[in-house]
Amino acid sequence: MTDSVKHxxxxxxxxxxxxxxxxxxxxxxxxxxxGQPQGFxxxxxxxxxxxxxxxxxxxxxxxxxxxxxxxxQMGGQSLLLTGSDLQLGRGETIADxxxxxxxxxxxxxIRTFEAEKLAELAEYATVPVINGxxxxxxxxxxxxxxxxxxxxxxxxxxxxxxxxxDSNNVTNSWMHAAAHFGFELRIASPEPLQPAGDMLDxxxxxxxxxxxxxxxxxxxxxxxCVMADVWLSIHEQGEGTKHNLLKPYQVDETLMSxxxxxxxxxxxxxxxxxxxxxxxxxxxxxxxxxDETENRLHVQKAILAWCLDS
Length: 310
Ligand code: CP
Ligand code: NVA
What we know:
With 310 residues, the protein is α/β, with parallel strands linked by helices. It has twelve helices and nine strands.
């Protein structure tokens, strides 16, 4: 890896000042284009002549559309590459894929399985690499979520944020965010699905205010925000045992009533109504899930501009 290349691999791998700068830039870009049609190109076309390669080894709606639209709104272009279309799907190495793509494009966004693949891509690429989700983390999502909470609640460092359900890739990025943004993160999961020991060690070493419990009511008690995610992430198989374990962690109206009166409900989507959340909650007045979705666009534009120094 060239030291000067600015990858966005994880919240934990990005300097505190840079995370703040990315969010400030995202808010400014969102405000500047208020009322404009989606096809409106940013004045100055900051990413003109720049090309983003987007590699998807897993399905996606929000990530692929928001990165593509982000490039277009900044005057650049994107290429959508699925794992099976690439020689990567026939055994070409990640290292060679990184070196080849670096000769053609200005940045690479990848959604893949093992976090090691992302790390290897970044090691061999000579252009910025962005994490569009791995089995381990989903930093672009949580940056958009932090932006959304800043809009709705102001200073996030004062917030109590509750997670109810499976501890997964999104939870891990929330744990990284807790260390930087200073909020209290309460994770309610059944014991077998609680965060991995190395993640908890990381939280302790980085003074992240993270509480893990088996009790969803305790997590939601007086919270400013209650969050859920799917019970079965894309890389997982077989719903039986996990669904049985997670039933008591569904975010329903009763659980929401334990939180503050003005608490918001968040979910990165896609959602399964009747599983991790009731339709009444996700479609109700406390839900801000589509604001989170929109902010993927704004925050990723800021991440792209930061990676490409534009
Ligand atoms: N939240 C999110 O990353 O959605 P997609 O899987 O549709 O990209
Ligand atoms: N935890 C989910 C997030 C989807 C955006 C998954 O990995 O499938």
